Amino acid sequence: MSASNLQADHMKLEDTRVTRRYFDKFAKITGYLTKVAATMEAEGRFDRKEIEVMARYLVGLNWTFTALAHKYHFAGRYDHAGKLTFDRVESGFPVYQELLEMANDAQQAERHLASMPATEDLKDQMVRVILSEQTIPTKLQFALSQRLYYEELARGDQFWARNDPQCLWLGNDGDRRRFLVHWAVYDSQINLPTIYLMELTDTGRTGLPKDERRWPEAQAHLMAQSLAHLKLLTIAKGFDEDFDDLHPVRLRRFHVGPMYSNAFTQQSGPLREVLKAANAPIGEDWALVWTEEELISERVEQVKSGWFGSVERQIFALDPFAGGSGETGASRMQRALIMPERPYQALAERNPPGFREVRKFVVSDGGRVLSYR
User: Fold this and answer.
1) Strands 359-363, 332-340: parallel, antiparallel or unpaired by DSSP?
2) CB atoms within 10 A of CB 100
3) Rounded CA separation 27/29 (Å)
4) CA distance linking residue 289 with residue 273, whole number of Å
5) From start to end of the chain, where are the E strands?
């Protein structure tokens, strides 16, 4: 894609009220995500360890938006406030560069905080300006928003552009250790949070997370392959072939988004029309796509290695309905929609082709999550 096309896809939020509406919308959406994940756990789609991992990333995503909301709280009202750039065509999320800048700011958060007045001092100064000058203390308000931004970053645990692999022990099968390796990225090509879960068995002498040679190599390998355009089959086979004593038996990838909004995005297609027809009030005019891909090893075969040895290689099951070449590169793919009640009613009434098999999670301000096929 050319630079001019990318520029056309990206949009800066110029107005304070619009910026705050954008972040209020995402505060709701990210808050709902953990409730949807809990519903999936109740249905047996996640076990306890998996849901804890997923919740950590989803809560981290919420904190990322909280931090960015502080950073851009005065966009359009103060010249130095900056303006959020988001992808209005492909994802509805902030562009990748925003997360890179946030990660850089996080590295320097403590230094910035040390040079700033304390929160209470800023509030006291605001009161004095209001009483003595009878004006709105915009500069002080902006300073406070930046302090809150750096305080949020200093607390940590946000969803970053790169969230390096971590390893959880699941138990042993005889002499094989079982691990859940998880990691996440903010994909730079599609501007979406993407979460990976890999179950593997380890036949090495030292358990993977304690192995000073294999663990850094495995982490680097997985991060280098964490690209949305790569099929799960490509990622899993590459890992299987590069590590003779690590055996990936299940790999899942979760795409959080795109987010469709009648107020903010310009995506085309049935969802756009559904949101227009719903005519939902501010804060409820959105729909979020959640996509899960899964690849499962169906058997193992021994492959010759060297003169006399052999190694295990996984043979992965591919979706029999994806065409003869297994073009999805996965055993299964499932899409879901998360949306408020008004957009769901409009979707049910219009019933566009292609959405009948999509799972629907309908959320309400009261915290209720209803699931529909």
Assistant:
1) parallel
2) 15
3) 6
4) 15
5) 10-12, 85-87, 162-173, 176-187, 192-202, 246-261, 286-305, 309-317, 332-340, 359-363, 369-372
Supply the pLDDT for residue 338.
Answer: 96
Q: Which residue in this structure is represented by tokens 């003169």?
A: 307
Q: Token pair for residue 121?
A: 């001092």
Closest CA to 10 of 207, 188, 155, 204: 188
Q: What is the pLDDT of residue 268?
A: 75
Report how far residue 269's alpha carbon sits from residue 287's, in angstroms, rounded to the nearest whole number: 13
On the question of a cis peptide bond just before residue 137, with omega within 30 degrees of 0, the verdict is: no
- All residue ranges of the chain with pLDDT < 70 are 1-8, 305-309, 320-326
**H, E, C per residue of 249-278:** EEEEEEEEEEEEECCCCCCCCHHHHHHHHH
Looking at residue 167, its amino acid is: C
**Listed residue (185, 169, 270) closest to 230, CA to CA:** 185
| Cα separation, 102 vs 83, whole angstroms | 13
Buried/exposed code over 172-187 (b: 16+ C-beta within 10 A; e: otherwise):
eeeeebbbbbbbbbbb
Q: 97-112 pLDDT, tens per residue?
A: 999 999 999 999 999 9
Residue type, 213: R
Model pLDDT, residue 324? 43
What pLDDT shows up at residue 112?
96
Which of 129, 121, 136, 119 has the alpha carbon at shortest distance from 70? Answer: 119
